[in-house]
Prior knowledge:
By secondary structure, the protein is α/β, with parallel strands linked by helices. The chain has helices spanning about 1-5, 10-15, 55, 120-130, 160-170, 175-205, 210-235, 255-270, 295-300, 305-330, 385-395; strands at about 40-45, 80-85, 135-140, 275-280, 340-345, 360-365, 365, 370-375, 415.
Amino acid sequence: MHRMNHLSRRRLLQGTGIALALPAFESVAGGSTKDAEPPKRLVCVGNHLGFYPGNFFPQLSGKDYVATSTLEPLENHRDDLTVFSNLDHGLNGGHKAVEGFLTGIKKAEAAGFPRKNISLDQVAAEHVGSATRFPSIHTGIAEGTDMCWTRSGVRIPPVSNPAQLFRALFVGSPKSQLEEQRKQLMHRASVLDALRDSAATLQRTLNAADRQKLDQYLTSVRDVERRLRMSQEWLDRAKPESPIKEVRDEERQHIDEVALLYDLIALALQTDSTRVATLETGLGFRTSELDLGSYHGLSHHGKSSGRIGQLQVIESFLTQKLSDFITRLKEAAVFKDTLIVFGSGMSDGSSHSNRNLPVLLAGGGFEHRGHVVCPSEQYRRLPLCNLWLSVLQWFGVEAEEFGRSTGTFSLMQIG
C-alpha cells in the first residue's frame, strides 16, 4: 500500500497496458458535422530549435512592419496573421524547457498546477470529444519536440511516417484486424474495470491527502475508458475516401515530408477526421531540398554570419511550408475557422534561451494586428499562457485559466 501511494499517475496508467502514446490511432465516437456554425479547428506547429531572433522579429510594430527573412514567405498572408514579441513562460532550461511551449509548465513542476502539464492541443481535443474520429492527430519530423502532453502527464510522440498517417486516415482495416482490435479493446476495458475495483477498495484505507491523489488517478482512468468506448463505436464506420493517391513507405526518400504532413493535416481537417492537429520539427530535422549541414549544429551559430545565413535558409523553408499550408486551407474554405499556432519553446538556439519566444497566430477569423510588441519590462510582462487561454476560449473551451495565465489576452479581437 505504501508503494501505491507514491506511484505516479503515468506509471499507474502504464501498468494497465493502455497505450496513451498514440491517441491519433484511437478512434472516438462521432457526431453530426452539419452544425449550425462551422466547427473550429486548431493546428499547432512547433520547432525545437527556435528561430534566430534577428531573422524572425520585425523592427516595427503594427501592420506596416517590414518582413524579416523568416516572415517573408508569409507575405501573401500578411493580413491573416499576427506576430508577437516579448512573450514567454518565464521558463529556463534550454532544450528541456522546450517541452513547455504549449503548456507553460515543465513536466517536473506540473504537480503544482490545477491542469498539470496538459498541452493546449489536448485541452482542445478534450473539448471536441466524440465529434470526430480522431480527437487529435500528432505529426512530426524526427523525434519531435516533446510538445504534446495528456492530462495524465504522458507525452504524445508524433507520427513521423506519412504513409502510416495516411493509412490511419483513409485506409480501412480488414475484418480480421477489426476483430483483433475489438478483442484488444475488450481486454483493455476489463483491465480498467479491475483497476477501478481495486482502487475503490484501497480508497477506504487512505487518509484525505492520499484519497485526493487516488481521485486524480481515477480521473485518468475515466478518461481512458471514455476513449475506449468511442473507439468501439468507430470501429465499423467507414473512413473517408482520400482525394490523393496513397502514400507508400518506399516513397519517403523521394518526397518532402514537411509538405506532405501539412497536406495530410489539411485533408484530415477537410474531411472532419479531426479538428485538432500538431506538427513538430525535431532536433534531427533534415530535408533533401536543403543541402546543408546539421541543423542542430547550425543553431549554435555563435553569431557567425555564415551560420546565421544558413539558418535563414532553413527557417525560410519552414515558413514557406506554413505559407503553402495556409494557401491550401484557404482553397478548401476552412481557413477562417482554423487557428494556427506557430512558434517554438526555444528562442535563440545558440544561447539556449527560452525567453522572448517566436510566436505567431494565423487565421481563426481574428482581426489580426501585424506585429504586436508586448511590454518588455519585467513587472509588465504578459504570460504567453494568457494568449493560449484566449485561443482555448476562441475554440469554445469554458476555461478561466491555463498554465501560468493571469487572464486573457486583450490585444486580440475576433472579427
